[in-house]
Specification:
homodimer; Multidrug-efflux Transporter Regulator, Chain: A, Domain 2; 5 helices; elongated; DNA-binding
Chain lengths: 127, 127
DNA sequence: TATTGACTTAGAGCGAACTCTAGGTGTTAT
DNA sequence: ATAACACCTAGAGTTCGCTCTAAGTCAATA
C-alpha cells in the first residue's frame, strides 16, 4: 500500500504519517527498492492503533515509549501493561471531566430553552 | 480575593489567570485603587466555569466567543444556546473516542495479564 | 525527449495554550 | 530607611503536534 492509499484509508495526511515514522512511532515501514514506502498489514495496524490512541488524546511521547517496549519483545510485557494501565487512568479522569462538563452544558441549554420559551421570566443566570 | 488566593482555590497559576483576563476570557475583574485585582464572586464563578470547560478540552476561542455574547446581554441567548449545543456535540464525539480507546486498553491489559499468568501460551499479539 | 505526477528528504514554520522574564510599583516588617 | 514581598505590565519563549516548503528522484505518458 502506498502512502496516499494509507492516507485515505485512515484519514491522516501523508505528512502526519511520515512524521509518525520519523519520530519512531511506526516500527519498520517496508520500502520498495527505490525507497518508496510500501505499507504492509502490520504497518497499517500500527497506524490504526496510533490513530485510535491519539484520538483519545494520548501523548505521542507515551506512544513512542509503548512502541519501543513492544519492539523489545516479550520481556517488556509487564512494563507495557503498567504503561497502558496508567493511560487508562488518565482516560477515566478525562471521561469524568467530560461528563461534568456535559452535565453543565445540558443544564445551561435547558435554561436557555426556558428563557426563550418565556417559561422563565426571572432571568438571573448565574454563569 | 487576591490572585494568589484564587490561584490556590482553583489550582490555576497566576500567569494563567492573568492570561485569561488579557485575552478577554474574564469579564471585568475588579481592581483595588492601586490596580491590584480583587476577584469578586462573579469573577470567581467565571474562572470556575472556564476551568471546567477547559478541562473538557473546549477551545479558548470558543470560550471567548461565549463570554463576549454573554456580555452583550439577553439578545444573544439564542446564539449562546447554539454555541453550547455545538460544543456538546463535540464533547459527545470525544466521549465516544475515549470509550473506544478504553475498550481497546482493557482488551490489551487483559491480554497482557493472561500472558503473564501463563494462561495464554500462543503469544500472537496483533497490535 | 520532455513533462507530469507521485513519491522522497531535511528542516522551517505554525497555532494553541500557556509560561517565563525583566523591570516596575506599593505595602509591610525590621 | 531599607529590605522583603506580593503584586503589576509587556512581551519573549516554550511545548506539542503537526504542516508546509524546497529541492530532489523516479516511472509513466504525450
Amino acid at each position: 500500500m502506498t502512502i496516499s492509499e494509507v492516507s485515505k484509508k485512515y484519514n491522516l495526511t501523508q505528512d502526519t504519517i511520515r512524521y509518525y515514522e520519523k519520530i519512531g512511532l511506526l516500527p519498520k515501514v517496508p520500502r520498495s527498492k527505490n525507497g518508496i514506502r510500501d505499507f504492509d498489514e502490520e504497518a497499517c495496524n500500527w497506524i490504526e492503533f496510533i490513530k485510535c490512541m491519539r484520538n483519545a488524546g494520548m501523548e505521542i511521547e507515551i506512544l513512542i515509549k509503548y512502541v519501543t517496549l513492544f519492539r523489545q519483545g516479550k520481556d517488556t510485557v509487564k512494563e507495557r501493561r503498567q504503561l497502558l494501565e496508567e493511560q487508562k487512568s488518565k482516560l477515566l479522569e478525562k471521561q469524568k471531566s467530560i461528563n461534568e462538563t456535559l452535565d453543565r452544558l445540558n443544564y445551561k441549554i435547558k435554561l436557555y430553552d426556558e428563557i426563550e420559551a418565556g417559561t422563565r421570566k426571572d432571568f438571573t443566570e448565574k454563569i
